[in-house]
Amino acid sequence: MSADSNQIAFDLLRAFRQLRTIRWNGLRAEGCTPGETILLHTLRRHMRKGSPGMKTSEIGRHLRVSTPSVTQMVNVLEARGLVERKADPADRRIVRIALTESGQEEMRKVEQSMLEGVSGLIAYLGLDRSRQLIALLDDVHLYYSEREAGMERFPAE
């Protein structure tokens, strides 16, 4: 790596670290951990597509956590009335996790808060720079996803 490449690498690492320090206020469901909130987001996304819910193993794959970890989070969220376990309509042996009406309402509030927070960033950056940021972050995600899958197209120099 050249000196310029090294400096850019350090600057990228610094920028990534800075993103981790941002307080994403309002992005959590009330009384929930970040992991529980992400689980709720995952269920909401899948249910919007007409899914009757997700199996714990599917949730685990999406969140990259073990099934027992998902089960623990589901137990907590179920006790709070945000999710429910349902028998799969096609195979009653399969249990699916779905948002309750309360869970859907909580996620609507979180989503609204997220949109309000990000709208400030869009106003700050402007539409063109916001679109550039989206494209660049999508490229970063694609690069690291392909790298993790062993499909790296552009190996390090």
Automatic annotation (TrEMBL):
Domain HTH marR-type residues, every copy: 5-142
PROSITE patterns (UniProt xref): HTH_MARR_2 (PS50995)
Keyword DNA-binding: yes
Keywords in alphabetical order: DNA-binding
Signal peptide: none
Source superkingdom: Bacteria
Gene3D superfamilies (alphabetical): Winged helix-like DNA-binding domain superfamily/Winged helix DNA-binding domain
Cited InterPro entries: HTH_MarR-typ, MarR/SlyA-like, WH-like_DNA-bd_sf, WH_DNA-bd_sf
Pfam families linked to this entry: MarR_2
Protein name: MarR family winged helix-turn-helix transcriptional regulator
Source species of the chain: Paenibacillus thermoaerophilus
Lineage: Bacteria, Bacillati, Bacillota, Bacilli, Bacillales
